[in-house]
Input
Amino acid sequence: MVLHRRVRTSGAAAPLLVAWLSWLAPQTRPAEPFIPIGVWYDGTEDLLTIRSLGFNSITTSVAWPVAEPQRSTYQLDVLERTLSAADVHGVKVIVQVETESPPSWLIRRRGGYCFSTADDRTDLSGFVNAVTTVAARHKSFHAIDVGSGPPAYTKRCRAGPAGTGMREQLELLVEAATARGQHPVTSHSRLSRQGSAVASETDVWWRTALLDHAAAAIHPKLPEGDVMRPARLGAALDLIRSVSREKGWTLAELQAGPGGGRVTAQDVRVWSWMALSRGARAIGYYAWKPRDRREAMVGSDGAITTRARAAADVATVVTSNPALFQPLRPRRATVAILSASPASDSSYRQLFARNIQSDFIHPDDVISGQISRYAVVVAESTRGLQAPVADALRLYERSGGRVVRTAAALDDLPPDVRIDGGAGLVETRFLESADALLLIAINHAGTSQGVTMTFAPDVPEAIWQNMETGASVNFVAGASGPAYTYTFAPRDVVVLMIRKKYR
Output
């Protein structure tokens, strides 16, 4: 317990470049629909500007070594001031506690962190509990993020395989974070950018199984030249969507700079709508002010960049229509890709190029029979799979399901929306609720693309509204279904909505 401890305040934490997160379902919900679309920001002076641009939240960070320079002495005054200012300006705050690097006094005491030691467990939970105690006093406090996970073991501490006890540590962090209130809790897990298959990331599966919701933090462009192409970014977003199943997911950290100066306003707009098209229920843009001497959404001279304004435009659409966006969910996919397969990345790319939505599934999903909801399962081979998985795939086939080795075998499968033109560079996604249908179409090409999109006969023709411009749009009736012809600018998006009562 930390009730007897002295609590002062201060802190900032080093940013994460690429991470996966797991999100616990809030035990209480705000009376009004709320979708956090905000920025990473440590401070108070820009809150009014952030709010006036259309953002409704910020993520602020507290580093363990800075916030607890001496054992049981907490410096949290900066956090207190941030939350107090957010109370005044009507901005919600997600508080990130960065626990990966233990404070120096703990390292000196034992040479590093060791979860098997009762004192270290007490210190870890005490820090998180202290931060939550301060945050819970404020109406602006929305969620607590326990960072990129518990501190790493020292070599001396490890008695088993690397990562032994990680689940227990995560449970400890969650317990500490929820001890002072009923708020959502997040926890990071790093994602390898250069792995052979995005969907082979086992960490995200077990974390989500342990918790209730999934979320992601992604930086598609890094200064050293690493770039996530559209299909790979789509695979990453669809993985976290698939892992979350019906629970929903958030994009808690989305790059809005720096990328060596290569991140553009078009990038921010496209990445944002890619995430929203896959059902993201929150976006946190990284970062408002320069961090680690790098360019951000606001220049060193205080000027608001075009990237910041692009993010603000997306935020305004969503935060102005929370009752519309909150219940929207992606339409179900009919194709599943077995994540254990080395071919999962290439199969996803082939389906992406043909505008066919797909889910990733875990071998456990196959065994449990959840693949029955799909018409097709892509599994490179049953060889090498555990016997229960291979047996379940054979049973699925005998029950009328279709199993193929690669997506190349699905030439006969029609796309979700037929696109004439665009050469695999334009994708569409539908989101749906009981009251509305939302179409998000994205041109990933760096050149203009004139396309005709032909929809299924059950898609209404009129009257659609462009959510960004407010203009009305009518589709044209055709023999195969309604169609819409549109000329995309380079790296462009069109977002259309129709209320079902007007169908």
About this structure: The mean pLDDT is 84. The chain has three domains: 6-326, 332-410, 418-502. The chain has 14 helices and 24 strands.
